[in-house]
Amino acid sequence: MSAEPIKVTINNREFEVPKGARLIDVCRDKGFDIPSFCYYADLALQASCRMCLVRIDKMPKLQTSCTVICTDGMVVTTESDEIEKAQRSMLEFLLANHPLDCPVCDRGGECELQEMTFDWGNLEERFTEEKNYHPERFLSPIVANDPQRCILCKRCTRVCDEWMGEDAIEAGGRGAHTVIGTYGGWLDCSQCGNCIEVCPTGTLLDGTYRHQARPWELAQTISTCTFCSDGCQASIGSRSGEVMRVVARDRYVNGINGEFLCIKGRFGHPFVNHEKRLRTPLIRYRKDGELIPATWDDAIRHVAQRLDAIDADHGSNSIGVIGSPRITNEANFVLHKFATELVGTENFTATDAFSLSAFFANLGGQLATHRDIRYASTIVLIGGEPEELQPLTGKQIRQAVRNGGAKLIVINAVPIRLVEQAAQFIHIAPGSEDAAVLAIAGEDGDGLAPKLGVELSALLTLRQTLAESQGDLIFMFGSELSAEAQIVMAQMPQTMAAEGRRVLLHPLPLYNNSIGAHDMGLMAGAMNARKMLAAAGQAIRAIYIAGSFLREDLRDHAESFSKLDFLVVQELFETETTAFADVVLPAASFAEVDGTFTNNDGLVQRVRQSIPPVHQSKADWMITAQLAAELGVDFGYQLSSSAVFSAIAADVPAYSGLRYPLLRDESSPIQVKHPISDRRDLTPILRAIRERVEGLLEAGPKIPDTPGVGHELFKIGTLTDKVPQFHLLAAGNPRPDSVSISPLYQITVDAKLRLEGVLPD
Amino acid sequence: MSAQLTNIQPRSQPVDIGKEVASFSPEVEAEIDSHLEKYPVMRSAILPLMFIVQRERGYLDPPGVAYLAKRLSLRITDIWEVATFYSMLHIEPVGKHHIQICKTLSCKIMGEPRITEHVCNRLGINPGETTPDGKFTVSLVECLGSCGTAPMFQIGFDYYEDLTTAKVDQILDSLT
Amino acid sequence: MFIGAIGCEPLQLRRVLLDNSRTLAVYRQNGGYEALRTVLTTRSPDDVINEVKKSALRGRGGAGFPTGMKWSFVPKDSPKPKYVVCNADESEPGTFKDRYLMERDPHLLIEGMLIAAYALGAKTNYIYTRGEYRYLIDIMDEALAEARAGGFLGKNILGTDFSSEIYTHTGAGAYICGEETALLSSLEGMRGHPRMKPPFPAISGLYACPTVVNNVETLTAVPDIIKMGGEAYQKLGTEKSGGTKLWSVSGHVNRPGVYELPMGYDDMEKFIMMDCQGIRDNKNLKAVIPGGSSVYIMRADDIIGKDVRMDYEGIVAAGSMVGSGGFIVMDETVDVFESTKNLTEFYKHESCGWCTPCREGTDWLVKVFQRVANGGGRPEDVQLLLDLCDNIEGKSFCPLGDAAAWPIQSAIKRFPEDFRKHLVN
Ligand SMILES: Cc1cc2nc3c(=O)[nH]c(=O)nc-3n(C[C@H](O)[C@H](O)[C@H](O)COP(=O)(O)O)c2cc1C
Ligand code: SF4
Ligand code: FES
Predict the structure, then answer these.
(1) I need a labelling partner for A621 at 20 to 30 A (CA). Which of A436, A675, A752, C24 fits?
(2) What is this model's ipTM?
(3) A87 lines ligand 3 (CB under 6 A)
(4) Closest by alpha carbon to A426, among A375, A383, A371?
(5) For residue A124, what pLDDT band results from cuts at 50, 70 and 90?
(6) Which residues of A346-368 are buried (b: 16+ CB within 10 A; e: fewer)?
(7) Contacts of A734 (CB under 8 A, 6+ apart)
(8) ∠B19-B24-B25 over CA atoms, to 5°?
(9) Is the dihedral angle over the CA atoms A322, A325, A331, A336 positive or is it negative?
(10) Residues above pLDDT 90, as percent of chain C
């Protein structure tokens, strides 16, 4: 869209607008209200609801402003009796077969159809005929559906296709018998619930929240999702200390993700108020004894004394401090301060197997934001599977290709679903990702092709595409890359720099605050979590950990725990880690604290307290500060997380100058200033990688199949374990005998499925 | 898939293929290939292929639908949305002989009601129903392009025009 | 059923009554493929388009858009492949001419399409035939095979360097797929929903490539235009409506059939009373729908003694439209309320459901008609029907919405008594 201005006249007032602007957007931007249902920014045009009719001079009929591109000298009328009659009549048509059951509809109070009807006012009901009937039904454990309320704006089918690439829900039938649905009436998809979110009426509804609350009873708190590194903005709806739902409706929140969320972000929240949340601090007085409830004072005192003793006997480096890529910057910062300044140990880290230290130490350019991804011209994805692990990134990639015509190159050992969108798919042998990085870096292809198990021609095509790329060129990579390979990636903005091209980087870490944990310095410790476990009983005597160890680390070092003198764990739930803990401290979840997460765009975004801490739990950073106080050091934050953030701004250069007030508006997030290194000489690094790659044998068999939707999303973790629907999905989403809806019935884990052994008890 | 998208996206993998997938004789497979060859985009062959599956299996049964999704690399939903749009495609069983009586204006004023009544009385079913033995289904359909030779009906793909009740009897008697 | 020409030499119907008229042999004995040879050997694509422009040929599918002009919209320089698509979906109630053209003279359509393909540089072409016309698809496939074998189709046609293929494609029961953009959606394997215009098919049609969609009758007129020259063809008809037109006559006449008339034929009364041999059982004429179900219904007294000229302008002047030439004649026994209800049910059944006014409006209209028919009529219902039509007309996504409104509006205007009698009580 070129920006050269043209003139349009709307309701006798002249405006300058950019060439190529869409009339409906222009009218709204200039303050003229245009009703619409089917128009939805950045989705395929539909022009089917016919609400947005306007009069354009020299055109025979009323025109749909959603389909009109402004031309110079265009004269438009948006308000007249003729137009009002047309728009009223469209509304009347839409209401004709609508059940008008707002009082019992979960959407009542935030329904666009209801609001538009009120706006117009005094619509006499002329439709006295019998209404077409469709029964209510469940489409899945998560999606409830009342076809009779549908106005067929098809936002749902378009987001399912264009955002998710799943096309799981579609319009079937014809004419007045058109219904949104699926073949066989059961919805097999990633259950993202975006169809529910964009539905302007009560047709598609959250099946886990049916008749639980009315929107106006809920306190809406804008916060950042706690599941993956994309950092979607969502609105947490809570009522008297309970999180009822999480949505991204644009009437409440307007973040980088628009109305998009994935299944975890939208339906993963029930862990917050789950009955299994820890209620009080717990102390295990004897090694093989029970964990016994204790007061905070006793627990804190107990921990302080033991740490003091171990420090005295074995030195400060025998104490390991471990933060988490899941908790806030504030929490990790205070832990880092605790470890370095108070305990004075070199052994601190965070429980993240995918360290980006090498990457950031050599960062040669900016991180790509999700907006950059949407408008990129070329995207190279090495390893990873965004659609399952960073769903928003996956959606942005798909839209860049489908709506923006971007070129996607997928380099992966697995034929992931995104391959559908790829201009080139380089199907490499498992474990040869580093070799692919060499190929991109321009190393000789003949040697690499056999290791990768691809034709040389494929690599040449790849290089040509890169060489010719103009506009934004974005490199993304997953955790498959070695530290050296990450350095090569980090330097791409320097090595690939060219006229008319901007090279951006988008690493794909796994957790909501992986990057924050790195920025707070935790990943710079002498040992990572794995090493500490291995050294338990020798170099490491005590561990203070926020959250739990990663499953795989535990599996490999289970016996190590017994060798530890002392283990303190801050957790929401009892876990494999707390099973060995000497002291367990109940931590508050993301919904109960104020703070910040830093996402994979490098955007630092607010986490806001939606409900008071559950039971006796406390924010992680407060626990650490309290422990420090007990050990005689007052960090001086009082009880204010914003004070902690100011300290972060003072200590961490990338965050300097930032304050909470600057982060107030989620619609204009701030990217932290990761230091940009100048150009590095990569020769030694490339040599190192080459040696390792030469070590690889010739490529063996490839991974043939595309993994099914949800193979990562539906995995049962500590948090998703608390949501019955995830168990159903993990068990293959079995279709219940009846999908018909009774007012309060929810599809959930029922005894039958347990008996059949489909589900765990 | 959204109709207005200009770049048509070929699917690499249907995500949700049904459990059981229909299979056909080499001749039928060859016939299907001959249709696929006509088009630069596979999806274009969806209607011809649906008619073949319907011919071979009586209607678009689940294994048939799964076959189409697989053969055309489409989602099951893509098959469903198309199948339910067109009135000649059936995802529910229909009788062996599908009697489709034209009820639109020219046929209507030229005696369609008489013909419909006669057919229904003979078979003992109403329009839209199938005889218990599954042999006959009667439907009232819109204009079939025989207005000059009204009244008329179509059985399967065969046209029967200038109908009289006597002629209807002959025709029905001749059907096994 | 009659089939033939009145008031002129049969042109498009020249061969339909010959034995084996559908074979290549008979077609060639009667001048078949000569026009194609002339074009390929002696004319440039632009010559062809100009010839068609001169002929004043207007689309016979219903919209009546000048064919030569439509062809000239196709961008010559576009690197994309181009397509000619024949619209043989013939589903407009009262219309059955295309059926007989294809059944009796399939090679005429092939020749017409190839000339169009040459003029537009199309290498691949499709005939989209409504699914119910399966037997015509078989006939066309046979004819196409014959033509291919005879060197008239496929690679290096008639030994020239022009190559072009024609394939048949089947619809599956959807009137809306006769609308050109819905037809293209359907041909791409989608639901048969219309698409936004602009872009028009000539710019972005099948697979987003330049595409010309033409009706069977339109394309079958082209060979004769080449043979006799554009002017001569035009002179068969009137200045603005060139050539001859096929009329599908049905209803209460003694001799229904497909009639080829010169454009501007005088006059409609004569046509009904003489050519179609008058109204059956010497009843009186009551109403005529001259151009297929979508056009305004005419009263007998708008026809009797009014010498209505049978061409685009003449019939508009008389208060209706040529449309697709589906000429439905109704005698005094017909209740226009009933006939209008019947057509409204048709449009409700055929509405694709894409846009609000047509989907909901036709559903509502039918419910009102049925309530009234079942004795539940109210005095205000006529006003309601008219207002609903007004809310659909001009606001729907494609013209089907208008097509559903016009019959009702004209019927209520011209036969108020037939509606009133259902409402008194
Ligand atoms: C609802 C609707 C149905 C139509 N049905 C047909 C049809 O059955 N056959 C046809 O040739 N044109 C039909 N048309 C007209 C086509 O849209 C298009 O104008 C025509 O095929 C162009 O060819 P022509 O210029 O040769 O007439 C229909 C139009 C509409 C709006
Ligand atoms: S008017 Fe609307 S609903 Fe009716 S056929 Fe056209 S697009 Fe479909
Ligand atoms: S918003 Fe324009 S038609 Fe729906």
Answers:
(1) A675
(2) 0.94
(3) no
(4) A383
(5) confident
(6) ebbbbbbebbbebbbebbbbbbb
(7) A728, A753, A758
(8) 155
(9) positive
(10) 99
Least confident residue range of A157-166, A399-408, A526-535, A744-753: A744-753
Q: Which ligand is nearest to the CA of A64?
A: 3
Residue A685 to residue A692: CA distance in whole angstroms = 11
pLDDT for res B3: 37
Cis before C199 (ω within 30): yes
Work out which ligand 3 atom sits closest to the CA atom of C397. Answer: 3
| DSSP assignment string, A468-515 | H--EEEEEEE-TTS-HHHHHHHHTHHHHT-BTTEEEEEEE--SSTTHH
Could you tell me if the CB of C398 is within 6 A of ligand 1? Answer: yes
Q: Which ligand is nearest to the CA of C90?
A: 1
Give the model's pLDDT for residue C17: 95
Angle, helices C106-120 vs C216-228, to 10°: value is 80
Q: What is the pTM of this model?
A: 0.94
Give me the residues of chain B with pLDDT under 70, please.
Answer: 1-18
List of chain B residues whose C-beta atoms are within 8 Å of the C-beta of residue C188: 8, 41, 43-44
Helices then strands, each counted (H, E), chain B: 7, 4
Chains that touch A (3 or more CB pairs under 8 A): B, C
Six-digit token string for A282? 């717990």
Residue B68 touches chain A, beta carbons under 8 Å: no
Q: Which of A156, A170, A148, A34 has the alpha carbon at shortest distance from A94?
A: A148
Residue A342 and residue A527 in contact, taking contact as beta carbons nearer than 8 Å:
no
C395 with A93: Cβ contact below 8 A:
no
| Structure tokens, A249 | 């409706």
For A420, the closest of B9, B76, B80 (CB atoms) is: B9
User: What token pair was written down for C172?
Assistant: 């599956």
Mind listing the pLDDT tens digit for each residue in A7-49? 999 999 999 999 999 999 999 999 999 999 999 999 999 999 9
Q: Which of residues 111-140 of B touch C (CB under 8 A)?
A: none
Whole-number pLDDT of residue A1: 45
Chain A touched by B142 (CB under 8 Å): no
pLDDT tens digits along B63-83: 999 999 999 999 899 999 999
Amino acid A558: pLDDT: 79
Cα separation, A581 vs A587, whole angstroms: 15
The mean pLDDT value for C381-403 works out to 97
Q: Where are the alpha helices (DSSP H) in C133-236?
A: 134-149, 180-187, 216-228, 230-236
What integer pLDDT is reported at residue A743 of this predicted model?
57
Give the closest residue to A459 by CA, choosing from A496, A420, A427.
A427
Asked whether A64 lines ligand 3 (CB < 6 A), one says yes
- How many whole angstroms separate alpha carbon A344 and alpha carbon A628? 12
Of residues C1, C132, C293, nearest to B149 (C-beta) = C1
CA distances in angstroms from A570 to A249, A282, A619, listed in the order given: 33, 10, 10
Location of structure tokens 């259950």: A191
Nearest atom within ligand 1 for CA of residue C64: 27
- C405 pocket-lining for ligand 2 (C-beta < 6 Å): no
Cβ–ligand 1 contact at C61 (below 6 Å): yes
Q: Is the minimum CB–CB distance between B84 and chain A shorter than 8 Å?
A: yes
User: Could you tell me which of B71, B80, A183, B82 has the C-alpha nearest to residue C190?
Assistant: B82
Across the interface, whether the CB atoms of C357 and A132 are under 8 A apart is answered no
> Which pLDDT band, with edges at 50, 70 and 90, does A121 fall under?
confident
Q: What SS3 state is found at C120? A: helix
Neighbours of A675 (CB within 10 A): 9
Q: A127 touching C, CB under 8 A? A: yes
Phi, psi of A198 (to 5 degrees): -80, -10
Q: What angle do CA C423, C424, C425 make, to 5 degrees?
A: 110
